[in-house]
Amino acid sequence: MHLLSGTIAMALAAAAILTTSCSSRGPLSPEEAFGVLQKAYHRNDPVLMLGVLSGESVRRIHTMTALIATMNERQRDKMAEQFGVSAEQLKNLSPAAYLALQVRLARVRNEDAMGRALGSGILKSEINDARAVLTAQNGMQLSFVKEGPYWKFDMTDW
What we know:
The protein is an alpha+beta fold. The protein is built from eight helices and four strands, in the order ααααααααββββ. The chain has a four-stranded antiparallel beta sheet, with helices on one face. A hairpin with a 2-residue loop joins β1 (122-128) and β2.
């Protein structure tokens, strides 16, 4: 009996490992990516949002944060004043903090196109090889790209 319970425990552990290693680490369809993006946006979770962005989108955010960090002090002070944050925060802006700031500013300024696009469901999905365009029920379109097995939101045209 002891041998049998040890075998069962080993089988359960192996099954748990296989289940974990085979689970998805990213959205496997553009619709799933839309859902993750929607959840991240509405929960104000910039880290989750960053994880569903295309590589090119993330590179552009890194470029923006680097440009802001290298601004002269006077420029950064003026920008900080306009954005309602400290100049030091801008100087040390991480990609996730940059996304959070952009979302906050869009909402405050009532220019939240992303929120409007993510606020309605998907009307249609058009997939062409490694690119997809999802049209929201309000007519707004979001682009997604396939990177490896996962679909990512391409915000380079936003």
